[in-house]
Amino acid sequence: MREELVQRNVAKLVQVRGATYEVNRGLNADQARNLRVVTENNPLKALYTLALYLGLRRGELLGLRWEDINLDDKFLEIRQTLQRVDGELRAVTPKTRRSRRTVPLIDLCVDDLREHGERQARDRKSVGERWVDTGYVFTTEIGTPIEPDNLRRNWYPVRTAAGLDGVRLHDLRHSCVTLLLGLKVPPHIVQAIVGHANLDVTMTIYAHTSLDEMRAALNKLGEHLT
């Protein structure tokens, strides 16, 4: 077009489908509280706490290092994710700028992380020279990174015990979004906490799970018009 060889921009005729985002219903407040009870003695209790309260992704949880956490000042930084790439377990840089973020820690998260650190120290002492010092927060009993599939296997009995059959581990992240928005936290704050690339994703998750609020709104309309 700059050379005036064509009269219109044919690229405008191309129709691009919007991205799809699979969303399941998240946990309600009672289910979230029950999950806390069920995971009380689970070696990965702190991982489930961060998934539910901070909305961290699986790769972010598994890629979290102790050097990324400041328990005294109560924050953590998401700098990398742990993923399988070409069959190899690798730490990779988050895909988007918003995914690379600093998240404050509430006292409950700090307490669970301190407890987890003590548990890990006991594991280190018990295996002695077999311990592999990777620096990861969530590891196997000998310090090596946790395979993503193995984390899923840990989750299955947890969700069954909590009466959450069919709920995916990723749905804890969705639960964080819906519970925060249900408490009237501004959407842009929720977006910053969970690291969504854009606000549309945050609101799509909420719209999928806010049937009770929509029903209440429609009831108000019905009452108003009668």
TrEMBL record:
SUPFAM superfamilies xref list: DNA breaking-rejoining enzymes
Lineage, broadest ranks: Bacteria, Bacillati, Actinomycetota, Actinomycetes, Propionibacteriales
Species of provenance: Kribbella karoonensis
InterPro entries: DNA_brk_join_enz (IPR011010), Integrase-like_cat_sf (IPR013762), Integrase_catalytic (IPR002104), Tyrosine_recombinase_XerCD (IPR050090)
Gene3D superfamilies: Intergrase catalytic core
Keywords attached to this entry: DNA recombination
Protein name: Tyr recombinase domain-containing protein
UniProt keyword Nucleus present: no
PANTHER family attached to this UniProt entry: INTA PROTEIN, PHAGE INTEGRASE-RELATED
Domain Tyr recombinase: 22-219
